[in-house]
Amino acid sequence: MQKITREQLLDRAVALLSDGTVNSVLGWQKGEFDYDVTPHIFKSADELKEGFVWNDFCYANFSKYLVLKTDRIEGKLLVFLKPCDTYSFNQLLTEHRFDREKVYAIGVGCEGMVDVNKLKAAVDGISSIEATEEGLKVTTIYDDEPTVVAIENVLLERCVNCKSKKHVAYDELMGEEGEIIDSARFDEVAALEAMTADERFAFWQNELSKCIRCNACRDACPACTCENCVFNNPNSGVETKAPVTSFEEQMFHIIRAYHVAGRCTDCGECSRVCPQNIPLHLLNRKFIKDINECYGDYQAGEEVGMRAPLVDYTLEDLEPGEVLNRRGEDA
Amino acid sequence: MNMREETLIPKVGVITDVRIDTPDIKTFRVVTPDGKKAFDHRPGQCAMLSIPGVGEAMFSITSSPTNEEYMEFSIKKCGCVTEWLHQAEVGQQLTIRGPYGNPFPVDDVFAGNNMLFIAGGVGLAPLRSVINYCRHYRDRYGKIDIVYGSRSKDDLLDYKEIIDEWATDAGVNVHLTIDNPQDGWDGHVGFVPNYVKELGFDTDKIAVLCGPPIMIKFTLEGLRALGFEKTQVYTTLELRMKCGVGKCGRCNVGAKYVCKDGPVFRFDELDELPDEY
Amino acid sequence: MQVKEYKPLIVAFCCNWCSYAGADLAGNNRLNYPADVKIIRVPCSCRVNPMFILRAFQRGADGVILCGCHPGDCHYTSGNYYTRRRMAMLFSMLDYLGIERERTRVEWVSAAEGAKFAATMNEFVEAVSALGENKRLEDLRCKR
Amino acid sequence: MRKCSLEKINLVFAEIAKAYTLYLPTDQNDSSAKFTKWEEGSVWSNALNTVRSPKDFFFPQAEDLMEFKVEGKNIDITDIRQESEDFVIFGVRACDVKSFEILDRVFLVDPVDSFYASRREHGIIVSLACTKPSETCFCTTFGIDCTEPAGDVSIWKTETELYWQANTEKGEKLLSYVDSLTEDANTKAVDEQKEKTSVVMKKLPLANLTTDGFGAGKTMELFNNEAWDELSQTCLGCGTCTFVCPTCQCYDIKDFDTGNGVIRYRCWDSCMYSEFTKMAHGNNRLTQKERFRQRFMHKLVYYPENNDGLYSCVGCGRCLAKCPISMNIAKVMKKIGGEK
User: Under an 8 A CB cutoff, do C59 and D260 touch?
Assistant: First the structure.
């Protein structure tokens, strides 16, 4: 359950709209059900009052929309940012991908967002969801007794392993500021690293073979902002639309993760949006973990203007062979 | 070997002649390896040409169906496939499939009428097929007017054929124009839409338009100003196509597929389609 | 196990200023290294984009080696420093996906090190031969 | 109607698998279901439906069409088509069965797509009636009765029994293989189940969703609707909705140069992609709004106009569940169709 209430955010948004500070509001819009929240640009107070929501399902990272939308919008855009979104926000600013002057950012405290897939696996046929102190009270279309689901059991993976409750960018903060968390987010990567090469190969073959190349991971990623992606560009020689062979599956996912290596803030959108539930964050986190271990701790988006590790170097960097074998011959 | 027919599987064709028309347009003559025409077609229909490994693209067939020996394609260099074709030499094989789309209604609606053909740039390519068809069956049609414009004299497609054959035919009037004055050009200078208005045609005819979208737009306005009804004006559209048979979904505009229901449309039919072409 | 003698196909990306000259020197000095090493000359080792490495494997390479100037000697001052980080990360990722780490390597070979070039190639070919054919990063369509 | 005890189900599968390649939904490690080939030990999933639709069986995501050998200026074309072998898809829901009819009207009209036709002729569909629809289901909107699925054989699953009914000759033949494992049955249990399910169907959140305001002849009116701007404004332009959709059928044809020949293959494409209509001289759908609009206009207006009013959506709810931003056809229909 979120500590900040919808009404608090709504009042603030309406106030900023009416005093002319902002022209429009990028917020979350109510859906057909209690969980299918859609990012939406609200233009008026009435529209906000009718459709704006803030609940445990406001998982979408808005930072990417700033790239797509701020060019076309007149005046300032109010955007709500959860702690993890602020890292993407800074990273995009570092890369000069949007005009800071056109954005009014409100940092919103976040208690973790719910993974709808996990919730649906726990309860079939959801008709309504109510956030209570005990957890989510879920009623069903089959008229069963309402089920109370503890939020910690259905949180998104990225929230289970939340790296920071601190906002690194905002014009205004609503709620209390949190702390950077010493999370266990690299444990899964370490577990994979500890496997044999054969086991790792089998694991990734199984996961990557599920890919349907819908490009959701790429299109939702706040770090993937190329105007023309190499996978869409017929002149690149690698334009592909379907994972025709296992090689193409591997190539797409290696290059996707590699292209954001050092820029990925670990916001977890790729894994959230994957319709096939491929744990794509494990690819991105591998790069982050390697970078931390080999070139010193680095959190993309922590500050504006940082130099990304892969466009930097020191004279004493490890040799590729040393990086590979730093845990022994075949860990 | 499978016994079912499959339209996506093409035939092999051979380029037997390459004519350089303008700095960026070449006309290719294509037959099957045994020297025959790959298939019969009607004026205005298209064919899919491809170079394996490069890609496949839809081109209008420039030659008239009355030519029983070969097919011709006038192709402007503007993308992957066309660039490759422009480097091709005589004897190069390619693949060909078709014919696709609906032809111009040359035997019913056009028959017995005066005809006005208006083309800009490479837009003459699809019209050449109809013009030569009408010239072949000269007695079936009334007076024929051809307005053709291009950027410069060098960019006029089929210039030799126009001057030597079309212009010398009885009852065929050719009006050429280029965008800007040029040494050695004593003809009309100006854009096609304005030239059409200047020429001021009677409305007792059917007009067929093809060219860049902006030219089509203003020429249509010009024709309307001269009193033409939309039902009297035909054009041929072009969109990205992959299958050519209305299945791949790419050229879908409104309930129509340009490859299957077009490419020839009458302007009043276009009014019923969303403006997405 | 192997009935037919297995000869691996190795792609070596060599920087124009050092390693390619090193390969030349190896040739001039009649130093032996297997003909299965196909050299692709690049202006600088940092010209090599991760896609090049993957594409080499797709097209049938069993091992890919990248040779550049020694750190500090780059013709363009710092290109090979970037290469070092990029390839370290890429190869680590390939390893993470279960692709044998012996199939990829970066070596610094100067124009004067003909002997090192030949020795490196011999050693690399041997290491890749021991692994056998590349099965984990292959594109079946490209196999005859 | 025939029936068999659910305890015998694995024997039934084994018997069918002797005669055909059998595919059925099985649970995956991420609690989703997927159609997999049956082998000894496979467990039939209880999930309502698979994430990927069964259109893959007839119209796979990627398939090779032909091969070329290019030598000098010469080209040699190889027809690599092979006739499909008989196969059974077991446990297809009523909505997905309907989707095959929608695909048929694209691929089986002249000129027939021989790749699709071959698979369609050799595929046997065993459909399964729904008992526990999800909140994202809206098949009734398109006139589909999930308790009365079509297909070559229809089956109903109760607590203890499986009821079978052959609808076609192909279905009769399939049933004959499991004759010894099944026995004659009356329709009482099935009728009761239908009744119970129908009650749930009426209570679904989208039960009132209607196609009013859509269909043939609405092109210009709906195309120019102002709401498209708002609906599409946060669309990311990914292809998730099109790729999980059982009725989306747009494809691309591409060449792959293997180094010793060229393979021409086709693969799914999505009208949501920016390069879908991109040509050398430009693009006729420049913004996401136009691409977004195309997808829904095609399903709700253009397709019905060409196909006797049949909509190109079956209400399976996959796009509702999978869209990264939760924008979907139900929201579009409510907004554009005017029903609040």
Answer: no
Query: Residues A315, A239: one domain?
Result: yes
Which contiguous run of DSSP H or E holds residue D62? strand D62-71
Q: How far is the C-alpha of A29 from the C-alpha of A11, rounded, in Å?
A: 15
Is residue D162 one of the residues assigned to a domain?
yes
A273 in reach of chain D (CB within 8 A): yes
Same domain, D150 and D278: no
Does a structural domain hold residue B194?
Answer: yes
User: Which of B2, B53, B55 lies nearest to residue D81, judging by beta carbons?
Assistant: B2
Q: What is the spatial distance between Cα D245 and Cα D319, in angstroms, rounded to a whole number?
A: 7
Contacts of A38-44 spanning 24+ positions with Cβ under 8 A = A38/D234, A38/D325, A38/D326, A38/D327, A38/D331, A39/A65, A39/D234, A39/D325, A40/D230, A40/D233, A40/D234, A41/A69, A41/A73, A41/A77, A41/D233, A41/D234, A42/A13, A44/A17
- Chains touching A (at least 3 CB pairs under 8 A) are C, D
By three-state DSSP, how is residue D78 classified?
strand
Let me know: does D57 contact D22? Beta carbons within 8 Å.
no
Name the residue among A33, A37, A244 with its Cβ closest to that of D267: A244
Q: Does C61 touch chain A (CB under 8 A)?
A: no
Range of the domain at B65: 11-100
Count CA atoms within 13 Å of residue C144 on its CB side: 3
- In this structure, which CATH number among 3.30.160, 3.40.50, 2.60.40, 3.30.420 belongs to the domain C10-142? 3.40.50
Q: Which of D52, D232, D234 to mutate to test the interface with A (most CBs of A within 10 A)?
A: D234
Please check whether residue A203 touches D, CB under 8 A: no
- Asked if A238 and C140 come within 8 Å (Cβ–Cβ), the reply is no
pTM of the model: 0.91
Q: Which chain D residues are Cβ-neighbours of B89 within 8 angstroms?
A: 73
From chain A, the residues in CB contact with D273 under 8 A are: 215, 232
Judging contact as 3 or more Cβ pairs under 8 Å, the answer for C and B is no
Q: With contacts defined as CB-CB under 8 Å, which chain A residues touch D320?
A: 32, 36
Contact A310/D at CB under 8 A: no
Query: Are D256 and C59 in contact (CB < 8 Å)?
Result: no
pLDDT tens, chain D, 340 aa long: 899 999 999 999 999 999 999 999 999 888 889 999 999 999 999 989 999 999 999 999 999 999 999 999 999 999 999 989 999 999 999 999 999 999 999 999 989 999 999 999 999 999 999 999 999 999 999 999 999 999 999 999 999 999 999 999 999 999 999 989 989 888 898 999 999 999 989 989 999 999 988 988 888 889 998 899 999 999 999 999 999 999 999 999 999 999 889 999 999 999 999 888 888 778 888 889 999 999 999 999 999 999 999 999 999 999 999 999 999 999 999 998 865 4
